[in-house]
Amino acid sequence: MPVNAGTQGQPACLKWSGGEHTLSGPCFIGRRSDNDIPINNVQASRRHAVLMNLNDDWWINDLGSRNGIVVNGLRLNCARRLRNGDEIRIANQRLSFYNAAQPAPHHSSILGKTTEFAPQTLSDAPTSSAACELLIVTEKGEIIEGDKAAHWFFGKALERAPGGAHYFLPPQIRQWLQKLADLNEKVSPPLEMEQQDHRLVLSLARCKDDRFYLLVRVEVAKISIKRLETLGLTVREAEVMHWVCEGKSNPEIAQILDIAIHTVNRHNEHIFKKLAVDNRHKAIKTVKERLGL
Known about the structure:
Elements: E1 12-16, E2 19-23, E3 27-30, E4 37-38, E5 49-54, E6 57-62, E7 70-71, E8 74-75, E9 80-81, E10 87-90, E11 93-99, E12 107-110, E13 113-116, E14 132-138, E15 143-145, H1 147-154, H2 171-183, E16 191-194, E17 199-208, E18 211-219, H3 225-229, H4 235-245, H5 250-257, H6 261-275, H7 280-290
Parallel strand pairs: 3-4
Antiparallel strand pairs: 1-2, 1-11, 3-5, 5-6, 6-9, 7-8, 7-10, 10-11, 12-13, 14-15, 14-18, 16-17, 17-18
Helix pairs in contact: 4-6, 5-6, 6-7
């Protein structure tokens, strides 16, 4: 699925003390000066985070940083969909996310604390949102940044000449890059590669100084939300069960879906009853059996 531009006529932005950045495409944050938002602090990694738009929602993803990302006081351990008014902290920098296309959050005072209510519905966000890495490569497919991520995605399919300083991407991706270079188009369709149990999606984030910035995402399409609904689960139960199948804990699921942990627990109880099981392990096993996986 391509990385889309923001909602037309309703630009999202990041604001901080003394600065503002309008989001029109993938936004890179980190210590290097060539990031969209450079942070001059040793606690920030060279490529710390990326914001990208998927299905008209903005997501923030950690690019393997050393000190992590904090959103609204919680450290991220997976990609997070951003909401109007969210506060992001990277190293010593605090940034606020604003999206005019989203309504202002509703709040309620409980025991003297301000609590944001999660929206009642969740757009069908792609499963790939939780696994995204950045590779910076040359036109010929030589990996300049992102060796570790490339090995995780492609393994032995990477190539390197004897004595060479860098690895090269697999031939299929190099051919795709060459076509992008020849066409010289700002917007191009992503490259999708089918693997044994998942799909890799490579999107061109930008081309700068003869360097291609590629966002590589993992899509596990077999246990999708739509397929889980065929088992008699509601949309929300299917969303929760999808992330259970992805190995996420209840607190992680609550963070991803912007709901309370006790709400996740309640959905799990309903899911277990519908699947006639009594724990997560049996639920995953039953789902795979019923879906023929």
